[in-house]
Amino acid sequence: MKRTVPLMIVMxxxxxxxxxxxxxxxxxxxxxxxxxxxxxxIAAFALILGVGSLTRVHAHKIKRKSQNWQFSWAVLIPLYAxxxxxxxxxxxxxxxxxxxxxxxxxxxxxxVSIQSTMFSMLAFYIASAAFRAFRAKSALATVxxxxxxxxxxxxxxxxxxxxxxxxxxxxxxxxFPNLAAxxxxxxxxxxxxxxxxxxxxxxxxxxxxxxxxx
Amino acid sequence: MSAVNIWERMLNIDRRWIFxxxxxxxxxxxxxxxxxxxxxxxxxxxxxxxxxSLGKENAxxxxxxxxxxxxxxxxxxxxxxxxxxxxxxxxxFLTAYTPLGHxxxxxxxxxxxxxAVPGYYSRVDFSQWADLRDAGVTDKDELVAAWExxxxxxxxxxxGWVFEGRDFAxxxxxxxxxxxxxxxxxxxxAQYHQDANENPLSExxxxxxxxxxxxxxxxxxxxxxxACTAWVIYGREKIGLPVAFxxxxxxxTDYYPYIQSGQIIGQMGGLRGAAEYEVLxxxxxxxxxxxxxxxxxxxxxxxxxxxxxxIIIGNIAYFMGGFHKQKSLKGRG
Amino acid sequence: xxxxIGIWVGAFFTLAIYSFLxxxxxxxxxxxxxxxGISLGYTMAITYDVVLKPRLIEPxxxxxxxxxxxxxxxGLLYITRFIPGIAWLSRYPxxxxxxxxxxxxxxxxxxxxxxxxxxxxxxxxxxxxxPWHVVVGNIVLVFxxxxxxxxxxxxxxxxxxxxGTGSKIGIWIIMLGFGATFGFTVMGRIxxxxxxxxxxxxxxxxLIE
Lengths: 214, 333, 209
What we know:
The complex is a heterotrimer of chains A (about 210), B (about 325) and C (about 210).
Chain A: H1 4-22, H2 26-45, H3 47-64, H4 72-88, H5 102-120, H6 122-132, H7 139-154, H8 157-162, H9 165-175, H10 177-201
Helix pairs in contact in A: 1-2, 3-4, 4-5, 7-9, 9-10
Chain B: H1 3-11, H2 15-32, H3 42-52, E1 59-65, H4 71-87, E2 91-96, H5 99-112, E3 122-124, H6 130-134, H7 140-149, E4 161-163, E5 168-173, H8 177-184, H9 188-191, H10 205-209, E6 218-223, H11 228-239, E7 243-247, H12 249-252, H13 256-260, E8 267-269, H14 270-283, H15 292-295, H16 297-320
Chain C: H1 2-18, H2 26-63, H3 69-76, H4 91-121, H5 132-151, H6 160-204
């Protein structure tokens, strides 16, 4: 029950779905349609794991008064306030009219601002890394560096002004050597993924079972 | 002070000076407004030409398959394609691969239909034109004529009317989206019973003409991750759905194999790709001005030059200081 | 008013995050924690709106689609992860979603990322009217893909004329590709910064259009 049944579910489900692709009969299509309507429902419940884990970690921090425990409230309050603001108490911020609501406000003006700024900080770090770490230490490193510089100049308008050949060489690198390298990686990843899929479906790879209950 | 010390000090400069220089260089070009021309590439032109060939009998999907983190790159792409489709009266389905992408799709739609934004489209909500729908008026030209005959005047500055359910359907997020794509190859309505505004899809005219992905002409996935590949794997390979990518620059180089193999018709790579689309829209008279992506390209130029200078100076200091002969260089901060 | 307050709040949090560039501080930490909570809270609300309500609750209540209780029950088994004695039950929904997902993905991924790529790698080097740089590019494309694949083939030592030379050419091609990726990565990061500066200078301070 603990290991065999899940392994059987994986095997039967995996084989059934693979076969379904090759035999588009009305019965297999009916099974597939049922599956497509069921799977998102099951997957939606997985959110409970995320919410539960996050709550547990931060509730623990607050309870034990660990370092910076006060900030855990900044996680827990919006975590539960957002669904409440969306459904149970959809507060409007437009003088009693319909949306924009507090829920919309929290997403568009707080979440979007913070998350996009966090990602944009990488611009500063990549500039610092370019100064400190990007070295032409060997012939291969020099090739990487030159390719990067040509592509960087080729992608911006000033590259066009410096020389028409910059964007052209940049595009040539992208369309030929870059494509060759990325296709080799795609093939490698593709074969690896397919092999892993088969190993899991046929129960050779079982690490996904984890240690829960053994 | 020996020469080596100067190079070492240079390489160990407090990185906050580098941060400051990037910050300053990123602000100045906005104020000087040079507006250097942006040339267009085949990868973007092919998407533009494809969308341009579509008309009121066609429909496209725009997948807002990204989170707020990459909105600066992705949103201009989605906005540009949506404007192009609205201009040509092509019906647009808006979907999202992630829950946060759901908000991004809504945000992009709000932007395109915001009266404060130049060249906006005047939005008519689903309930507002129920009478016309009930009367069977669904052809775009007839719909606009009937709507204006009912006393509605197109506001000044507006590029046209867009009717919810005829010109766009905001479907939004669904979990396990790759399965949703597969499911939509048979029926869109089976996957989304209602849109994000809780309007029933069964009553939408655009759903009557485009019941499944087989009756859709293009899917443009605007993506900040590998989510875009789902449209190729499950849409293109299953039913031959034409797919175009609008991806962040970080992942753009990874998808050139799809372009060469003909699995995608083209790709907008990063802000530059979005700027190219904006330039094409303006050149073809679809919009009067370019938008945020084009405006950002001067800063992009300045920052690239600065980072290349950093690489050159860093290498000069490294080799002049003789650090290439040492095993490691002491770092700080 | 709503928009104005929103933009001021957005600008405050933008600057709060950037303050980290100078030094870590409590305002940054507050923003960092908020984003985690809001993001998951938003996901919960949207998941209820677009999945549980239209696909489960409404069909159950309105349409008496009792069969949907099966996926609901299976989904609820995720909760057992938090109950030590029966945590193993959470493997059932995981097994279902993973197994079927892999089965669905297998043939289409094979077609898209393997077969189509192999097919597209077999191209003629030259056709009439083809410019010379494309001919050179095609040669690089075909032999470069082969060489890069050899480089990733670790079951044989990279020695001799085939594996040795092949892998050496392969690593040069890969470096050219990685260089292009680095160039694009720089571009991408700068683009994100541009987005925030447009927000601060335009939406907030109205210094630019």
